[in-house]
Specification:
This protein starts with 11 loop residues before the first helix and ends with a helix. Helices cover 75% and strands 0% of the residues. The protein has 4 helices and no strands. It has 2 domains: 52 residues; 39 residues.
């Protein structure tokens, strides 16, 4: 069974595991070949997740979920304000 996932996104858990292999001494070239990612992707992951432990990763996921939820709320409020402006301008 191959670990390659061409064109697929890796979950944060998978990225964390891949970076663990890098930290354990596996070469970047080998990791890139096995998982089908470019070195730039690997080093971008390393800069984002490199110094994190599992608890920090979970906290990051929670914050990203909350940020998505808040962005949806703001977008809905903007739509509501625009609808009210349209309604008031017609009167």
């Amino acid at each position: 069974m191959s670990n390659k996932k061409k064109g697929k996104r890796y979950s944060q858990e998978q990225i964390f595991r891949i970076l663990g292999e890098l930290k354990a001494g596996k070469s970047a070239d080998e990791i890139c070949r096995v998982y089908g990612v470019g070195q730039s992707t690997l080093y971008r992951w390393k800069s984002k997740y490199g110094g994190m432990d599992r608890d920090e990763l979970n906290r990051l996921r929670e914050l990203e979920d909350e940020n998505r939820r808040l962005k949806r709320i703001v977008a809905q409020q903007i739509l509501d304000i625009d609808a009210l402006k349209d309604l008031l301008s017609k009167n």
